[in-house]
Amino acid sequence: MKRRAFITLIGGAAAAWPLAARAQQPAMPVIGFLNSGSADAYPDRLVAFRAGLSELGYVEGQNVTVEYRWGLGQYDRLAAMAAELARRPVSVLVATGGEPAALAAKAATSNVPIVFAIGGDPVKLGLVASYNRPGGNATGANILTSTLEAKRLGLLREMVPHAGAIGVLLNPNFPSYGSQLSDVQEAARAIGLPFHALRANTDPEIEAAFETATQQRIGALTVAAAPFFDTRRNRLVSLAARYSLPTMYQFREFATAGGLMTYGVYIPDIYRQVGVYTGRILKGDKPAGLPVVQPTKFEFVINLKTAKALGLDVPATLLASADEVIE
Question: Maximum distance among all alpha carbons in the chain?
Fold first, then answer.
């Protein structure tokens, strides 16, 4: 063999080695992340989700890719988004932001593993067979937001004891709407308090609900858990201030935005757990064997500045029980 040909052969082989090595490397896994809300509504949740992933050794952009899809509170968009992610296909489909995303994911695939975060009962919704043994391709967390309406109503009653009636703002398109309404009706009857159900699924309907509350002399309002309302946080807080209506919400971000008070689960813990479960599935665990988790930490937040603006004297018992008081 001539020297020049030999050098060319060696050079070509050397150039081919990196290509061969790259071809043998496994493809980076892809996570589909479907959420009923918006990316900018609760950035701390994504931080917590990524922290959970990192506990299993996964870092977005380094050894795992995440494809995000946001419903922006429009539940009818989720089915197409879930189907598109399932066709990709993704290694795991994470469905957060409440029942609409989880149900859309479940309808889109029976093969791709699903990790959900919802406020209602996943057994009643048909997502899992049981909490301890999910049994199918889905598992996740029940954050109980939809079952805390009665608790929020009671706290609001303590804050505004002289309210002649309390209003409840519900989203009729939310899957847990019926159970939310039933829970509030039962709680209101138990404390002998008249209440009015107000419904909204659009921005104009939200404004109309506050106008109705004023016309009907409703003394306080609780906003039921729903991803649509989460995406309208600033609008809701602004309207409550404009109409001088004491209002209770579910997540602390409403209080930090100027809302009167909130009571709900400490949501970063849940999203971290969703990240952990996603990482475990990427490592080979099956959803059928991962029990549905429930929250252990709740937080009650009062915005004292807003209370003063509304002319409310916050009871000492509420201040003592609050996890955070914003001044």
Answer: 101
Among the listed residues 269, 189, 187, 267, the one whose alpha carbon sits nearest the alpha carbon of residue 222: 187
Return per-residue pLDDT of the chain as tens, 327 residues: 444 444 444 444 444 444 444 444 558 999 999 999 888 877 889 999 999 999 999 999 999 999 999 998 889 999 999 999 999 989 999 999 889 999 999 999 999 999 999 988 899 999 999 999 999 999 999 987 767 888 898 899 999 998 989 999 999 998 889 888 988 888 888 888 888 999 999 999 999 999 999 999 999 999 998 889 998 999 999 999 999 999 999 999 999 999 999 999 999 999 999 999 999 999 999 999 999 999 989 999 999 999 999 999 999 999 999 999 999
Q: How many CB atoms lie within 10 A of CB 276?
A: 20
Domain 146-265+299-326 CATH (choose: 3.30.470.20, 3.40.50.2300, 2.30.42.10, 3.30.70.240): 3.40.50.2300
Q: What distance in Å separates the CA atoms of residue 282 and residue 68, rounded to the nearest whole number?
A: 17
Give the Å distances, CA to CA, from 318 to 135, 263, 302, 310. Answer: 42, 12, 9, 16
CATH architecture of 30-144+266-297: 3-Layer(aba) Sandwich (3.40)
Query: Quick one: DSSP state of residue 295?
Result: -
**What is the C-alpha to C-alpha distance for residues 72 and 295, in angstroms, rounded to an integer?**
25
pTM, entire model: 0.83
User: Tokens at residue 79, please?
Assistant: 């089915």
